Amino acid sequence: MTTVTMQGIREKVGRGERLTFEDGVFLYGAPLIEVGELANEVRERKNGNVAYWVSNRHLNYSNVCVLTCLFCAFARKPGEEGAYEYSLEEAFRKAEELKGTNATEIHIVGGLHPDLPWEYYTDLLRGIKARMPHLHLKAFTAVEIDFFARTFGKTVEQVLRELVEAGLDSLPGGGAEMFSERVRKKVCKFKITGDEWKSIHRAAHGLGLRSTATMLYGHIETPADCVDHMLQLRELQDETGGFTAFIPLLFHPENSLLSHIRKSSGLLDLRHIAVSRLLLDNFAHIKVYWIMTGTRVAQVALSFGADDMDGTVREEKITHMAGATSPQGLTEDDLMALIREARREPVQRDTVYRSLEAVHA
Ligand code: V47
């Protein structure tokens, strides 16, 4: 058995060789600056000096959810104080705030609502598409897709096909949390398993939809759990090639059932960005979600492996209900200024990473 060293990993990366599970675990204990430097090399090889951003809006149609995930501060039980669901008209009004802007994407997710009918979801997509046909609809996590299938007696494929017919363009990456069974049993016992999450993304990719992948860190996971999570994603990406980006998500403890856990520091954010850039050789993009890391860490992350800043967002509930102190949204000018300050070249992209200049050329 060969011992893992930083020099050995550097050489492998130089040769374009894949890193192993043991390499990944080693990187979680190695000096951050060295891991970051190597990740930055890979990031520049893949994406040059560019840092992508998207003009988008989040739309959380409801926070009513039948699940109880210990990390979630957003969900409410039906009838509980603070529970809400938008009427279709309210949702359309929110979407229509994007008229006259440069926005290209709307990111739609909600809880697992026990009472909304199937037509609510299809009418939601259809209504937004009819009002703004140019908007890309990135909607419903694998957890919602599975819930729709079980609630409405359809197969996952049927659900996806009907949603595509209504206007669905891609799936967001939420709900992946941490694939480890041990961790899931503790923090989100009733949620679909990691295998189920992957099989829904596999089905979506099979229908030609692209999607993103996330990983929630900073709670009870170990470095080995994180490496295992990423290697499972790498394997699925080998199979389908359908993921556009990987996004590590920082757990915010406030108002959750895990509020005794201390919010982790920016150093851990940078570590996950860098390690994921090195392990996920078949992912073109690593996204730093500034809403969760804050804009300052996000700027540094652009030199630790990340090449994408997500977007303007405009309204954010999931992390802000859990104590996030970042703004709810950023203007396009502010986002570009942050990227330029970090000495990267801002490029506005659409959801599947075409530069908007290329799209309009
Ligand atoms: O699945 C829940 C996480 C996710 C908390 O696909 C929490 O491009 C932190 O998936 N603290 C939803 N995180 C957000 C998400 C996302 C965000 C931005 C871009 C994309 C993309 C996806 O947020 C959930 C869960 O993993 N989450 N509660 C919390 N207290």
Task: Explain what this protein looks like in three dimensions.
With 361 residues, the chain is of the alpha/beta class. The chain has one domain (6-348): TIM Barrel. Helices cover 44% and strands 12% of the residues. It contains 15 helices and ten strands. A four-stranded parallel beta sheet has the order 5-6-7-8. Strand 6, helix 10 and strand 7 (243-250) form a beta-alpha-beta unit. The longest helix has 18 residues, at 223-240. It is globular, with a radius of gyration of 20 Å. The termini are far apart. The mean pLDDT is 97. It binds ligand V47.
Secondary structure blueprint with pairings:
Layout: H1 6-15, H2 21-29, H3 32-47, E1 50-54, E2 56-59, H4 88-96, E3 105-108, H5 118-131, E4 136-139, H6 142-152, H7 156-166, E5 170-171, H8 181-187, H9 194-206, E6 210-217, H10 223-240, E7 243-250, H11 266-279, E8 285-286, H12 290-293, H13 295-301, E9 308-311, H14 332-341, E10 345-348, H15 356-360
Parallel strand pairs: 1-9, 1-10, 2-3, 3-4, 5-6, 6-7, 7-8
The chain binds ligand V47.
Mean pLDDT: 97
Q: What structural category characterises the helix and strand content? A: alpha/beta
Provide the CATH superfamily: Aldolase class I
> Could you tell me the radius of gyration in angstroms?
20 Å
Overall, the morphology is globular
Feature tags:
single chain; 361 residues; four-stranded parallel beta sheet; three-stranded parallel beta sheet; binds ligand V47
Characterize this entry briefly.
The protein has 361 residues and is of the alpha/beta class.
